[in-house]
Specification:
- The chain is of the alpha+beta class and 189 residues long.
- It folds into two domains: 64 residues, 434 Repressor (Amino-terminal Domain) (Orthogonal Bundle); 102 residues, Jelly Rolls.
- Helix content is 24%, strand content 31%.
- A five-stranded antiparallel β-sheet has the order 1-2-9-4-7. Strands 3-8-5-6 form a four-stranded antiparallel β-sheet, covered by helices on one side.
- The radius of gyration is 16 Å and the shape is globular.
- It binds manganese (II) ion.
- Manganese (II) ion binds next to loops.
Length: 189
């Protein structure tokens, strides 16, 4: 498999140029500095998941498209092992395993996320109509939606609007492992 930094560099460049955006304009849209964007496009930087998420949201592309090459739409049986594909980019308290990367024909991406103890993240608002689903596999965490932090423990699930302010935090002493589905009601890479 290709070096993840190279995949990210090429995917970002393609997404940006496909929209006819300069680095300056992309910095405005994503809140990520032009210098950082340039470094990523040159394969010189391994950004955190938070930075990737800002870029994905600002460019209206899926998060997983930056992590794994897109595969063609398929309904074929596919077994994946999160332990084998979990990524821990940069030093950050969030790990991601892109179980089923974004598929435009289905309109969603399906990930395993691990929120380490103490991690907190307020998410950018996604494009209109984006809906998120989270199910706690192990541990406990809280999800911010409608202005309230909802406490969730193992076996519980939450659905919330991704196009409104929302966030994730783990105030427990243990990592929280969750399954996350993000539905995008439009086509994107
Ligand atoms: Mn989000």
């Amino acid at each position: 498999m290709k070096n993840p930094k190279d995949h990210l560099a090429q995917t970002l460049k393609k997404a940006r140029k496909g929209k006819g955006l300069s680095l300056d304009k992309t910095a405005d849209l994503t809140g990520v500095s032009k210098a950082m964007l340039g470094q990523i496009e040159r394969g010189e930087s391994s950004p955190t998941v938070s930075t990737l998420w800002k870029i994905a949201t600002g460019l209206d592309v899926s998060l997983t498209s930056f992590i794994e090459p897109k595969s063609p739409h398929s309904a074929a049986t596919l077994v994946r092992t999160a332990d084998d594909i979990r990524q821990h980019p940069a030093a950050e308290g969030l790990q991601i395993a892109p179980l089923y990367p974004y598929d435009a024909a289905l309109g969603f991406e399906y990930m395993e996320l691990t929120f380490e103890s103490g991690y907190e993240r307020l998410s950018e608002e996604h494009a209109p109509g984006v809906i998120e689903f989270i199910t706690i596999i192990s541990g406990a965490m809280e999800v911010l939606s409608d202005g309230t932090w909802h406490a969730l423990s193992e076996g519980q699930s939450i659905r919330f609007a991704g196009d409104a302010p929302h966030g994730y935090r783990n105030k427990s002493q243990q990592p929280a492992k969750v399954l996350s589905v993000i539905h995008y009601p439009y086509l994107n890479p």
